[in-house]
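Course assignment 3, question 2. Fill in each field.
Student: A.L.
Task: Predict the tertiary structure for the chain below.
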Amino acid sequence: MSAASDARPPLPPFTHESATLKVRLAEDGWNSRDPQKVSLAYTLDTQWRNRAEFAHSREEAKAFLTRKWAKELDYRLIKELWAFTDNRIAVRYAYEWHDDSGNWFRSYGNENWEFDEQGLMHHRYACINDMPIKESERKFHWPLGRRPDDHPGLSELGL
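Answer field:
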């Protein structure tokens, strides 16, 4: 459920180019770590599965993101297009973060997304695994925020 004024291009049906752009825009949004801003990419009645947690609205998704980024400190994410159809996109991703005790992790995952006609995500299904790493094993070294265009992606990093 969304209004025309809520449109979030690129809109379905996706091409390889528009799906790749949609993935990068999602990555950029999540790297902002701004739950309010990120939540606007989802329908009011969005449905999420993230690990063992479920969200059933934009407000629940925003609350989830607020909790996530309070726990996952110095969060940096890279997403990569895996596949797409008319209104669906599959991505793989990895992100690095540490907890409040200084323990570092690289989290690997896959997501399946389904969009409405306005380009808002209605369904998001995520599967994620956390791997403890040493700080010296980190691969994502840009300043917090958007990943620079010249920073390698997942394939280039061998992830």
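Instructor remarks: The chain has a mean pLDDT of 96. The beta strands are 42-50, 53-55, 73-84, 88-98, 104-115, 121-133.
Grade: pending
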